[in-house]
# Entry
Amino acid sequence: MTAPLTTDSPAPARLERVEELQARISGMQATRLDSKAVPTHPAFESVLPGGTLREGTVVQVEGSTTLLMALLATPSASGRWVAVVGLPDFGVEAAARFGIALDRLVLVPDPGGQWLTVVAALADVIPMVAVRPVGRVSPAEASRLSARLRQRGSTLLVAGEWPGSDARLGLEESQWQGLERGHGHLREREVVVSAAGRGGFGRRARSRLRLPDRSLGFAIAGEALPLPERARTRPTRVEPEWAEPVPLGDIERRATG
Amino acid sequence: MTSELSRTIVLWCPDWPILAACHERELDPGQPIALIESQLVFACSAAARRDGVTRGLKLREAQYRSPTVVVLDYDAALDARIFEPVVRRVEETVPGVQLIRPGSLAMRARGPTRYYGGEDAAAAALLATVAELGVPGARVGIADGPFAAEQAARAATASPVGIVAPGASAAFIAPLPVGLVTDTRTTTLLNRLGVRTLGEFAELPREDVRRRFGAAGAFAHDRAAGREQARVIARTPPPEFSVQQEFEPPLDRVDQLAFAFRVLAEEFIERMRAVRLVCTGIRVELDDEGGGHSSRSWLHPQWFTPADVVDRVRWQLQGAGTASGLASPIVRLRVVPERIDSTGNHEEGLWGGGPDERVHHGLTRVQSMLGHEGVVTATIGGGRMLTDRQVLVPWGDRAPERPNDAPWPGSLPALAPASVFRERLPIALQGAGGVTVTIDGRGAITTTPEVFAVHGGKPAPVRAWAGPWPVVERWWDPERAKRMHRFQIVDDDGCAWLLVRDDEGWWAEARYD
# Structure
């Protein structure tokens, strides 16, 4: 599959183009034709590739339990069951205040060495599973589990490393407000959430969020940040000059529609 | 029906609630014991009665009269459960038994009298049966009608058998107080009218009693006059569902035992299924070689399948010993159904039981991998410390009912930390110059916190802090009293912590991450 590149552009621009195309290809490979969107908090629209969590995908969430809860809250509020594996310190009260329904929350605090089996068994029946892996996961195991997730339509959030995850979220900055030197109390926090798509390719986004905000919700704080990378265009948008090959456009339309 | 009253035998075990409680808790029935229901004494042992404890006394008054009294909660289900083997054994001696209440049985006298050759002999046979089961002080009363027979049993103090000759029952009960047949209000009224004994009550004209006291009064009047129309209604013995397995030689491995029990578990469930019943609660009882006894109830959110029963047995065994071996080999295993329901109430819907049933099956699978406590659901309870507030309940168990709308002064404001450490992390909080921050008797800090370090980690400057916020719990109880101070800090990475300072030092209770 070769995209018709304009021949008169200078070399760096061409390299740029190749990178962008690679990102688009891997972005499309990640988005399966029939993968459905999972209801996600609107604050993450600019962060997550595709705007929402999707069924059958694996998303890495690094460095913040609040971020994990924020991703779990809206699916839980929409009636889905949520399982949390291997996070013995998961704050139940915070989860409840952020909107996770406790009667549809299942905790497996100490799965021990069998955590991967437990996750696989839970993914069969529970549409949102969050896990903190113990040790390294081999790519073979990960892809077996991914196949199972896709088949069942479950979403896996991983608080740690995962080979071949579909997206990767992390905190870059964290700024608490309300607490001063000697007085006040923690009230809200502004964070910068960075996101990368599959295999580090795809869209890289940074977004300033309130996590949590004053009313224990989540919100976008201010304008979208200037992106360090060039990959600012949405991978799903078809640009006219190189959208000539019909099958590609066809796939995309189906994928986005 | 005005036919002649049939001769009735009543078997009475005095202080049955006390005996049942002692049997369950392995106490000595000779010591002063009181069973309490809604802060009043429901039953008391003979030793407590000697100290002046009576039924209906307030708990505090009972403790005042008998300082050494052992106070237990009254459990009606326990009474019935412990009495059940007695009923079954008596049914083998004398068929057609009516259970009046746990501790009292009524049966018709004609059959046993003829079989054993006399009322005395029948009574002796009954007493021997009960004595075999180790029930002390049982008594038998024989008279015309269940009421008179029960009074005869209660009146028999010299010998354990009280027999009232046929036709003499009315005369026998005449001197007894009228309160035995009427409720408190009517008794008071009758006493004020000068009617104190059953005999005096029986002399009142029947029609007048009916007009004044209604049907209940007429019934009481008939009883008092020895015209009771109640007859012994023998119970149909309920089918026995509990299963028991003895192991010879005793087994000491969990998997071995679970495997051996598998067949019996199938039979246990199948027997109930045959009469269209499902079981939603079981009780597993284990006896080990060393004479130990473990007994525990298990609930099921739906109903038990044979595999579920085996799982429960395994979990109970795992709780008793180490992972695979047991502290002491098991000689006997008994499973008793505690809650039984008709299958009709548990039918699956036409389109299946919905998604929650799938969830249940998945979680049960995980639970059989990790053990009963491996999969938990959470509720929020009351408390000041964060770990107290999250109540984790194993999947399938019922959440304890704890009101959480109490104000709990000293608990944290709305924003809750996302990570609550099960074990508090030791940390260091220092002021300028490396001096540990301490709190003086007036609750003020000695220096301002400047440097924060998680145990073994690199020290980092403190960006913001607030505190101390005192938390004082159970100051009236020297053993469980807690006194500590809480701080919130933000470290150099922008991560916020909830810190606790107590007598032992500085700890991180939770992290806002």
Q: What stands out?
A: The domain at 11-256 of chain A is CATH 3.40.50.300 (Rossmann fold). Chain A touches chain B through 51 residues (CB under 8 Å).
